[in-house]
Design a protein that fits this description.
355 residues, 3-stranded antiparallel beta sheet, Cytochrome-c3 Hydrogenase, chain B, 49% helix
Length: 355
């Protein structure tokens, strides 16, 4: 299957061994999109790396920005203004909403529910509009800076965010009406692509796929960053470990993200949006690793400085790459036709697998 198969997004090949319709073995073959990003970053300044991270998980650009700038700021020992931290949370959760809505559309379309793709993308447009107004980009959003955020939130944009959040529950209900109790959808997702909690941990699975197997691990709760400890929200956990539960977990994450954004808007502190950062940024020699809870799982950056204005080494821990290694286990014993649904339930983006 692939790399030309629509469900593998044009850049993933799956070598599949089958016994009639039963899957015996799968070997994912990656590398079709490799751009040498990590090596490229060694020739760029720290500030120039930030917009390059947009192109990794291009469905969740702000999350990539956030993980990298937090790693650099940790290496610098830089304190970020509280208002900037809250704005970062708002942008990151808006990006999570956009990412999960896109996933809903892709996933349903892969299985055959084309109407949900149109619903999901229409709903996602509201949040892309917000990102475009804020930073000028809809997909590859260069929305954060080392030291804070580039722009403040004005009253008009805050009002638009609140309106989009108010409209979202009805739109999600429409999608749920189409899918959640639909017997075809449930037949294609329930009991399919099973992975237990112990297996998920062993394979390094993170994000919604891990929480759907019964493991309550969310970096926003367990290792808070950017003031996430200030917000009251739940981490959705289910125990089925199948495609259906991975769908339900993401639906609930959409609701929890709206809850976080509302709290951040209500409690948005006054003050500066940027810390004092020199125009030419030279970081003392050292190394650091920092990770965040991206829409697809744990996204981390290792950064090593040699005292110049360019990083000596940058290494990225991408959730899509690590989550993909569980695909052979999930597919074994299932039908050939279930591969597409199982792969879709992992919510991979090849931009951050091949880097």
């Amino acid at each position: 299957m692939g790399p030309q198969h629509p469900s593998t997004h044009g850049v993933l090949r799956l070598k599949v061994s089958v016994d009639n319709e039963l899957v015996l073995k799968i070997e994912p073959v990656v590398g079709y999109l490799h751009r040498g990003m990590e090596k490229l970053w060694e020739s760029l300044t720290y500030a120039q790396v930030v917009p390059m991270t947009d192109r990794l998980d291009y469905i969740a650009a702000v999350s990539n920005n956030l993980a990298f700038v937090l790693a650099v700021e940790k290496l610098m020992g830089l304190e970020i203004p509280k208002r900037a931290q809250y704005i970062r949370v708002i942008l990151a959760e808006i990006q999570r909403l956009a990412s999960h809505l896109a996933w809903l559309g892709f996933m349903a379309n892969d299985i055959g529910a084309i109407s949900v793709l149109l619903f999901g993308f229409e709903d996602r447009e509201d949040f892309l509009d917000i990102l475009e107004i804020y930073a000028g980009g809809r997909l590859t959003v260069h929305g954060l800076r080392i030291g804070g955020v580039p722009y403040d939130l004005d009253e008009a944009l805050i009002a638009l965010i609140r309106k989009s959040l108010d409209d979202l529950p009805k739109k999600i209900k429409d999608i749920e009406t189409l899918l959640t109790k639909n017997r075809i959808w449930r037949h294609r997702t329930e009991g399919i692509g099973l992975i237990s909690a112990a297996e998920a941990i062993e394979y390094g699975l993170t994000g919604p796929a891990l929480r759907a197997s019964g493991v309550a691990w969310d970096i926003r709760k367990d290792i808070p960053y950017s003031s996430y400890q200030d917000f009251d929200f739940e981490v959705p956990v289910l125990r089925g470990g199948d495609v259906y539960d991975r769908y339900l977990v993401r639906l609930e994450e959409i609701r929890q993200s709206t809850r976080i954004i509302r709290q951040a808007l209500d409690k948005l502190p006054a003050g500066e949006i940027m810390a004092k950062v020199p125009r030419v940024l030279k970081i003392p020699a050292g190394e650091v690793f920092h990770s965040i809870e991206a829409p697809k799982g744990e996204l981390g950056f290792y950064v090593r400085s040699n005292g110049t204005d360019k990083p000596e080494r940058v290494k990225m821990k991408s959730p899509s790459f690590i989550n993909l290694q569980s695909l052979p286990l999930m597919c074994r014993g299932n039908l050939f036709s279930d591969i597409v649904g199982i792969l879709g339930s992992l919510d991979i983006v090849l931009g951050e697998i091949d880097k």
